[in-house]
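User: quick one, sequence for these tokens?
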């Protein structure tokens, strides 16, 4: 369970989709003056070098952020996402990739708070060092973020974003996500919850979006980006998706403009496509 290192996949197509959406959600939630609490249940290392270490081995970023980095005339949502990546590459050369908590911190204001959890012992130490100078705005806990939600919900400001992004290495991870969300919604029904999931040829992965829909009493948005046809052997991730509970009202329009460009830029074969569904009650 503790073998997963996100550095191998930093900046790949799944990170692009996740962080494009994250930037849009944060832009909306930080428009109001009232304080915002962001909780990242699987925060990783915070940031990643693309020149050395895990990310450089398979260079998955080349098929993700690498295809958008110098692309002109991007739709607004993609342009704003790339700007957040440029913030950690001030010389204009793509050398580093910000994880979700780093992007969140870049967009949060002095009154906002960021709570990060990371279960992997090595990753959690790196994350603590990454935010060593962030002060009281950021807390880092070496532990299970899904369990940690109970102590943080509802946040004092009653405004919050919860990002749930597990590795799904084990089949039971899918059920753990549903259990944590069910409890979270009972404690904090008005919060915005973003759940990432892989597109895989396994029963639990294919069933999760429907399970999330059944769990959600109000508004939701579901987006999926397929970058390649599923493998004939039935292994490997051919795309990823995100399920958003209580999404911002303008999120659907921003994604609908950006997704065709993502299909064109990140698609690996003729099966590349996207799916976008939205329910407003």
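Assistant:
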């Amino acid at each position: 369970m503790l073998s997963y290192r996100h550095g191998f996949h930093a900046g790949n197509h799944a990170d692009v989709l996740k962080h494009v959406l994250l930037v849009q959600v944060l832009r909306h939630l930080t428009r109001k003056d009232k304080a915002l609490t962001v909780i990242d249940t699987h925060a990783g290392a915070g940031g990643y070098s693309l020149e050395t270490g895990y990310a450089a081995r398979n260079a998955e970023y080349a098929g993700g952020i690498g295809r958008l980095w110098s692309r002109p005339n991007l739709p607004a949502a993609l342009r704003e996402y790339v700007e957040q990546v440029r913030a950690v590459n001030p010389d204009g050369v793509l050398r580093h990739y910000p994880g979700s908590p780093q992007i969140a911190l870049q967009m949060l204001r002095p009154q906002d708070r960021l709570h990060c959890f990371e279960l992997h012992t090595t990753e959690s130490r790196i994350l603590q060092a990454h935010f060593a100078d962030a002060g009281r705005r950021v807390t880092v806990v070496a532990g299970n973020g899904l369990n940690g939600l109970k102590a943080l919900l509802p946040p004092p400001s009653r405004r919050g974003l919860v990002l749930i992004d597990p590795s799904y290495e084990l089949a039971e991870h899918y059920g753990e996500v549903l259990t944590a969300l069910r409890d979270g919604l009972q404690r904090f029904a008005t919060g915005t919850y973003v759940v990432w999931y892989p597109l895989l040829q396994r029963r639990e992965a294919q069933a999760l979006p429907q399970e999330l829909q059944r769990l959600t009493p109000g508004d939701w948005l579901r987006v999926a980006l397929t970058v390649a046809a599923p493998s004939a052997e039935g292994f490997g991730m051919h795309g990823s998706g995100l399920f958003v509970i209580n999404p911002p009202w303008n999120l659907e329009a921003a994604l609908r403009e950006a997704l065709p460009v993502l299909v064109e830029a990140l698609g690996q074969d003729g099966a590349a496509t996207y799916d976008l569904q939205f329910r407003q009650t």
